[in-house]
């Protein structure tokens, strides 16, 4: 069953056609990578899916048309982590993760005991229990990415959208964060859709890939199907081999 389904999605910004009829079907519990050169429309597609950008066409998450849902109901279905989210330096890790309970408000609402328990569970899940009282300004890049994931997890949505989750990280931390996402996918049954600029990492982690170029899908399938040398040369203008054989 598809957790996320998009059909004929079009987005126009400043009278410029950014997405030109995108289709996407993401199986429940799978990891789907959206790839493509800079400016292809990857971030725009994620924003349309999470419902923060107006679009034409159809997008369904868990069988519901997200655009028609109120912010609170939408937040129960889908969690979105933008590329390099702004973290308020003075906020503590525990406060920030609690924000995942009230994403529709954009600020910390009156939290219940359940909210606290869920947020604590998310901290624990991401090995952050010892950091609860730490200010966000005092966290390293890898730690901040874990905090952001903990907040998304606290939201308890079934679908997680990650826009370039590894850009701010060094190589070791990139693997660590993606391993963690993969673990959450299998243990919590999350469906993951992420953009990833590193093609080898995408091949390593994603079950299915969509290659977006100039606002349109040019290929989708497994990494071996999508990431051929010829296609990479054509669309990235680079000679890269993702697979050795
Ligand atoms: P990607 O994430 O694949 O790098 P984006 O989705 O960020 O691409 O952007 C796709 C295209 O849309 C780019 O050409 C970008 O300049 C343009 N774009 C993005 N946001 C806006 C906006 N608010 N107004 C006009 N054009 C935009
Ligand atoms: Mg970009
Ligand atoms: Mg982008």
Automatic annotation (TrEMBL):
Note the PROSITE patterns from the entry: ABC_TRANSPORTER_1, ABC_TRANSPORTER_2
Task: Specify the domain of life of the species encoding this protein.
Answer: Bacteria
Q: Which UniProt keywords apply?
A: ATP-binding, Nucleotide-binding, Translocase, Transport
What's the protein name? ABC transporter ATP-binding protein
Instruction: Give the originating organism.
Output: Catenulispora pinistramenti
Report the Gene3D superfamilies cross-referenced here.
P-loop containing nucleotide triphosphate hydrolases
Please name the Pfam families in this protein's record: ABC_tran (PF00005)
Task: Give start and end of each ABC transporter domain.
Answer: 4-239
One example of the protein's molecular function in GO is: ATP binding
């Amino acid at each position: 069953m598809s957790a996320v389904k998009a059909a004929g999605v079009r987005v126009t910004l400043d009278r410029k056609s950014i997405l030109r009829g995108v289709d996407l079907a993401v199986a429940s519990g799978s990891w789907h990578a959206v790839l493509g050169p800079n400016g292809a429309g990857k971030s725009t597609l994620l924003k349309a899916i999470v419902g923060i950008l107006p679009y034409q066409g159809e997008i369904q998450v868990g069988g519901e048309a997200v655009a028609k849902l109120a912010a609170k109901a939408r937040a129960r279905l889908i969690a979105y982590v933008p590329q390099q989210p702004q973290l308020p330096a003075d906020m503590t890790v525990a406060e920030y993760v609690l924000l995942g309970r009230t994403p529709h408000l954009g600020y910390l609402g009156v939290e219940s005991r359940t909210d606290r328990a869920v947020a604590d569970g998310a901290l624990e899940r991401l090995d952050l229990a010892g950091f609860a009282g730490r200010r966000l300004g005092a966290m390293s890049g890898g730690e901040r990415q874990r905090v952001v994931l903990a907040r998304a997890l606290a939201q308890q949505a079934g679908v997680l959208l990650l826009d370039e989750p590894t850009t701010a990280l060094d190589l070791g931390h990139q693997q660590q964060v993606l391993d963690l996402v993969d673990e959450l996918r299998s243990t919590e049954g999350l469906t993951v859709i992420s953009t990833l600029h590193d093609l080898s990492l995408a091949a390593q982690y994603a079950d299915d890939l969509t290659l977006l170029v100039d606002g349109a899908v040019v290929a989708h399938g497994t990494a071996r199907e999508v990431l051929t040398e010829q296609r990479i040369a054509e669309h990235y203008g680079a000679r890269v081999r993702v697979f050795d054989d």
